[in-house]
Amino acid sequence: MNILDRFRHLSNRKPGVIGQEDYFRSAVLLPLVNYQGELSLLFEKRAAHLNKQPGEICFPGGSVESADKSEADAAVRETGEELGLERKAIELIAPLDILIIPFNLIVYPFICLIKDGNKITPNASEVESVFSIPLSELGSIVPVQRQIALKPVFPADYPYELIPGGENYPWRAAYYPQYFYLWQDQVIWGITARILKHFLDLGNGG
Fold this sequence. Notes:
about 210 residues; alpha+beta; 3-stranded antiparallel sheet; 4 helices
């Protein structure tokens, strides 16, 4: 095989994300459930004793592990563990766009349907409680929106002499949007709110 053939051999390669081996990979489900006659979206409130994001609102899901067949498989597995559901109780509907967070995190979200909400039994070791918001109400919530500026922090030995302009190089400005959805006494923000906005935008034809 010559050098050119080595590259042609890559023609059927599935593209990934450069540097993804340095990112934490997570997969979540946005669970639709029929509640009191309305199609609603289910959320979890994380247990207060957890080390990461205690008491925050999130979608069910977690880390993608080597034993998982796919990101969707990981999302279903984690959701089943957190909500006390068998896999057959969860129907995958569609993938959403992959979210890459500038804090070394990749999130793979999927829409699903929980066939019988009465079978949900939250795992107290991870989940304090669950609640659902009717889609008819979610669509009318206008989120509070802010932008966070992201700025590079350089080590003392950064080789400025190797780049045009040195210390005065015109670095591209970067911003990270944040959304806050307020519903009753709940605040949905952070990654969950970012994915929620994407979900609602798609539902509105965006």
